[in-house]
Amino acid sequence: MSTELDIEDVQAPITTAPPEVKQIIERVCRLEKSRLARKSKSAINDDILGIIKEVVQ
Known about the structure:
mainly alpha
């Protein structure tokens, strides 16, 4: 039971975030997952910045 509460606590900022923030989080997670699958070592900051700019506009 404690584990279930811990997971909810961790996810609370995501589940209560505005839709734009949720979209950024989801897209960055997908990006990171694909980079891990490819074992990419290149910088990710520019990609994340691009996602944020797209969502904010």
